[in-house]
């Protein structure tokens, strides 16, 4: 695997956060007028119960560093290899960018709508994501690598997404975020000797925020059934595959991170896919057949394509650019073949909301 520039300075951390690639977290903008027209009257009881939970704010005291935090960093993280250190720092930079992306999006929506239901929801979710981003950024500051989040907001490129794409992508990112965090937390709960950094201790209650955020978008989608039926199922299918493929390729670029926790990247990813498939049955009448041989072979090919693209990029020049283009086409063709794998279908439950039971 090709070496990437090490994250040893705030400038490199900021550069990594600003990247706009297929695998890097993005900042989004959307149609605020359309967001303002969201109608949740058909699921009013569940919606009001959810907002009451946000108002209760059961994690208001969670994102506080304990005196032992710094000590544990000094005692345990100082022992990790330089290679694992870099993978972990890359994980932190990617995570803070992703969490802050949600904060920016939700805050912009709540500032630009008058709909009281949407305004309240977005204010609560922006609050949560701000805490998450701040907590991760403080962990980066321990290494002198804190990111200027205000500067990131001003300088990172934004991608326009229609509201329905925001609903699909954000629902899945919140739910898969829950599945990722809870899988890591349970693993380190069983094997505390492999907890090489104290931030993992916060993952259980933290990921319940992610779960609740996903529940919010599940309610919005179920309140607008046209978004999860007919031709829109083609978009559901696309976003399911895109989110899974992005996670798989990204995780296989930093295998030491999972190995240090006693996990293997492929097994970990499929555990996360299985949990996300089960959760997403609350709102999507289809799910990906993650056990299909062509699905698994396609994921492995996407990893190989990514490695080849990086090698071509490192080579540079005309030949390197031509190779990058050729491998990008190969990746798109692989994605298209995976998209055509038959999906599994099921009925939607009568009650939308579910408990974080994993």
UniProtKB/TrEMBL annotation:
InterPro entries: AcsF, Ferritin-like_SF, Rr_diiron-bd_dom. The keyword Lipid metabolism does not apply. Residues 90-219 form the Rubrerythrin diiron-binding domain. It comes from the Bacteria. GO terms for molecular function: iron ion binding; magnesium-protoporphyrin IX monomethyl ester (oxidative) cyclase activity. Its cofactor is Fe cation. Pfam families: Rubrerythrin (PF02915). It catalyses: Mg-protoporphyrin IX 13-monomethyl ester + 3 NADPH + 3 O2 + 2 H(+) = 3,8-divinyl protochlorophyllide a + 3 NADP(+) + 5 H2O. Keywords: Bacteriochlorophyll biosynthesis, Chlorophyll biosynthesis, Iron, Metal-binding, NADP, Oxidoreductase, Photosynthesis. It is an enzyme of class 1 (oxidoreductase). Pathway: Porphyrin-containing compound metabolism; chlorophyll biosynthesis; Porphyrin-containing compound metabolism; bacteriochlorophyll biosynthesis (light-independent). CDD domains: ACSF (cd01047). One of its GO terms (biological process) is light-independent bacteriochlorophyll biosynthetic process. Catalyzes the formation of the isocyclic ring in chlorophyll biosynthesis. Mediates the cyclase reaction, which results in the formation of divinylprotochlorophyllide (Pchlide) characteristic of all chlorophylls from magnesium-protoporphyrin IX 13-monomethyl ester (MgPMME). HAMAP family: AcsF (MF_01840). Belongs to the AcsF family. This is Aerobic magnesium-protoporphyrin IX monomethyl ester [oxidative] cyclase. The lineage of its organism: Bacteria, Pseudomonadati, Pseudomonadota, Betaproteobacteria, Burkholderiales. The gene is acsF.
């Amino acid at each position: 695997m090709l070496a990437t520039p090490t994250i040893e300075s705030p400038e490199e951390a900021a550069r990594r956060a600003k990247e706009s690639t297929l695998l890097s977290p993005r900042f989004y903008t959307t149609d605020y007028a359309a967001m303002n027209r969201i109608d949740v009257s058909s699921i009013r009881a569940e919606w009001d119960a959810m907002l009451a939970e946000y108002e209760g704010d059961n994690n208001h005291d969670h994102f506080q560093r304990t005196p032992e935090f710094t000590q544990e960093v000094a005692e345990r993280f100082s022992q990790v290899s330089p290679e694992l250190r870099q993978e972990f720092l890359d994980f932190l930079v990617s995570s803070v960018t992703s969490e802050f992306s949600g904060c920016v999006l939700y805050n912009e929506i709540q500032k630009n709508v008058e709909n009281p239901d949407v305004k309240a929801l977005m204010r609560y979710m922006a609050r949560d994501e701000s805490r998450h981003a701040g907590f991760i950024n403080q962990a980066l500051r321990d290494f002198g690598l804190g990111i200027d989040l205000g500067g990131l907001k001003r300088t990172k490129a934004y991608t326009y997404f229609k509201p329905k794409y925001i609903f699909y992508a954000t629902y899945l990112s919140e739910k898969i975020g829950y599945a990722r965090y809870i899988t890591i937390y349970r693993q380190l709960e069983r094997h505390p000797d492999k907890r090489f950094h104290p931030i993992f201790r916060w993952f259980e209650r933290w990921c319940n925020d992610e779960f609740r955020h996903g529940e919010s978008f599940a309610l919005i989608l179920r309140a607008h059934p046209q978004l999860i039926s007919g031709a829109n199922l083609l978009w559901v299918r696309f976003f399911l595959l895109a989110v899974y493929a992005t996670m798989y390729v990204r995780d296989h670029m930093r295998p030491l991170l999972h190995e240090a926790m006693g996990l293997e990247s492929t097994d970990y990813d499929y555990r996360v896919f299985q949990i996300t498939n089960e959760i997403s049955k609350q709102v999507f009448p289809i799910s990906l057949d993650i056990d299909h041989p062509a699905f698994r072979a396609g994921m492995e090919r996407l990893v190989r394509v990514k490695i080849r693209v990086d090698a071509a990029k490192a080579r540079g020049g005309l030949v390197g650019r031509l190779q990058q283009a050729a491998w990008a086409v190969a990746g798109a063709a692989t994605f298209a073949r995976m998209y055509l794998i038959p999906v599994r279908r099921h009925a939607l439950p009568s009650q939308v909301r579910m408990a974080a039971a994993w």
